[in-house]
TrEMBL record:
GO terms for cellular component: endomembrane system. It holds the Pfam family NMT1_2. Keywords: Cell inner membrane, Cell membrane, Membrane, Signal, Transport. InterPro entries: NrtA/CpmA_ABC-bd_dom, TAT_signal. Residues 1-25 form the signal peptide. Belongs to the CmpA/NrtA family. This is Nitrate ABC transporter substrate-binding protein. It comes from the Bacteria. It is found in: Endomembrane system.
Length: 476
């Protein structure tokens, strides 16, 4: 049985008709969206309140659950006619969701959190589903790689040992400084996972990535390394132009640098924080309240797509890569996307290593929106000054619970269990916290129930009572 149970033959027949229309329209190359009338018919008798939807995404591999939900008919199964629309950058995407031009989107985990707490913009957004674990890397220019590689310890095969600490950049940064040049690196958005991962890696290696002051989106106070924003698809060109000497971005834009022979991924995010949470599916809080059945239907479709992506050890990944390589999705060459999404990762020509967990969409409860994940992001916002003042632990708990919505996730996921679509053990039994986590490159453990105690452990970063001004860090 599927979610059509209880709506009678008319609804089941409508869904079958809708799926048939998708299959027929898709004969040839790309699948065409089912018509609005067909989707409306499939949602008859109140199953979904808004069957025609527009969702946004950025051209990255980890938008895959949305593309698969569309192309494999999972949205259609739920009575939804979904248009997926690429966005120019993360700011445009965020504004589209807030303004209602988009009904939801593939979002940076930090975006709904920052909007809710009022950093950058103020809006009530929620994240009822996590899209994936891992999926990013840090790439450096050939120039920088040539400066650090000779001194790296190697394995028996002569290839560099991983993970590689950012401490190897200290002499490089010093050389740039002596030459009167800043050492510039790129990330995709001030509240992106990439910003926080890059900062975490640099700080763990003894380099200060800089602090934010109120109203300052540059975050360069006291910085050893200057970080700036570049949209993901533009990262390789920006590196090649010499504007930046490295960047943190999602795939396939690290592999694109390898293919173009302009840079070398020096570390993956899984090596910075093992099985770290990545993107989320974000939407407005009032959308979920106004259209609860539609929200549930979207989540069901995406969860089914996540399961498909991780099924049987990744047997569907080649097909997923082919879909993502289409110009209306990621639009990168098949080989570039496959270089990280099919259980391997290429650091440089001749150095391809197994990486079965580089992209995780369904396994390890990847879809569940843990409060502790949201709290980690907020600790990093506080660490670097985006949250300018101290807050007690309860504040972190309250803000996390306002944004991350496991209740909505569980409603959808448990209905899929009841329908026999996903196994019962795919849904975690949890209070919303992962418990104490290790796997960080600096060896520090993180407990989401003790955010202030965690912040106190971090050597570089704001401590309790400290603030940032244009002249530097003040306070205890």
């Amino acid at each position: 049985m599927s979610s059509n149970r209880g709506f009678g033959f008319t609804r089941r027949a409508a869904v079958v008709a809708l799926l048939a229309s998708v299959a027929l329209a898709g004969c040839g190359s790309k699948s065409a969206a089912p018509s609005a009338d067909a989707a409306a018919a499939a949602s008859a008798e109140g199953a979904v309140e808004k069957p025609v939807l527009k969702l946004g995404f950025i051209k990255l591999t980890d938008m895959a659950p949305l593309a698969i939900a569309k192309e494999k008919g999972f949205f259609a199964e739920e009575g939804l006619n979904v248009t997926l629309e690429p966005q120019a950058n993360w700011k445009v995407l965020l504004d589209g969701v807030i303004g209602g031009q988009l009904d939801g989107a593939h979002m940076l985990a930090g975006q709904p959190i920052a909007a809710t707490i009022g950093y950058g913009t103020k809006a009530d957004l929620i994240a009822p589903l996590s899209l994936d674990l891992n999926g990013n890397a840090i790439t450096v220019s050939n120039k920088v790689w040539s400066m650090v590689k000779p001194d790296l310890p190697t394995n028996a095969d002569g290839k560099p040992k991983h993970p590689i600490s950012a401490s190897v950049l200290q002499p490089v940064v010093a050389t740039f400084k002596k030459q009167g040049k800043p050492f510039n690196m790129g990330m995709v958005f001030p509240v992106s996972t990439h910003n926080y991962e890059l900062r975490y890696w640099l700080a763990a290696g003894g380099l200060n990535p800089g602090f934010y002051t109120p109203g300052d989106v540059g975050g360069t106070v006291d910085a050893d390394v200057q970080l700036s924003v570049t949209p993901p698809p533009q990262m390789p060109a920006t590196l090649e132009a010499g504007t930046i000497e490295g960047y943190c971005v999602g795939e396939p834009w690290n592999q694109a640098a390898v293919q173009k022979k302009i840079g070398v991924p020096i570390i993956t995010d899984d090596e910075i924080w093992h099985d770290n949470p990545e993107k989320v599916f974000g939407l407005r809080k009032d959308f979920a309240e106004k259209y609860p059945n539609t929200t549930k239907a979207m989540l069901r479709a995406i969860i089914k797509a996540q399961q498909w992506l991780d099924a049987d050890g990744g047997k569907n990944r080649p097909e997923a890569v082919k879909i993502l390589s289409q110009s209306n999705y990621v639009g990168a060459d098949y080989d570039v996307i496959a270089a990280s999404m099919t259980g391997k990762f290429t650091f440089e020509p001749g150095d391809t290593r197994p990486a079965p967990g580089f992209n995780i969409f369904f396994d390890k409860h990847a879809g569940y929106p843990y409060y502790s994940d949201a709290i980690w992001y907020m600790t990093q916002m506080r660490r670097w000054g985006q949250i300018p003042e101290d807050h007690d632990d309860q504040w972190y708990f309250d803000e996390a619970k306002a944004v991350y919505r496991p209740d909505l996730y569980l409603t959808a996921a448990k209905s899929l269990v009841e329908d026999g679509k996903i196994p019962a053990d795919a849904v975690p039994e949890t209070d919303g916290f992962r418990g104490e986590q290790g796997g960080f490159i600096d060896g520090i453990t993180y407990d989401g129930k003790q955010p202030n105690a965690y912040l106190a452990k971090l050597k570089i970063g704001l401590k309790q009572g400290q603030r940032v001004t244009a002249s530097g860090v003040t306070g205890n």
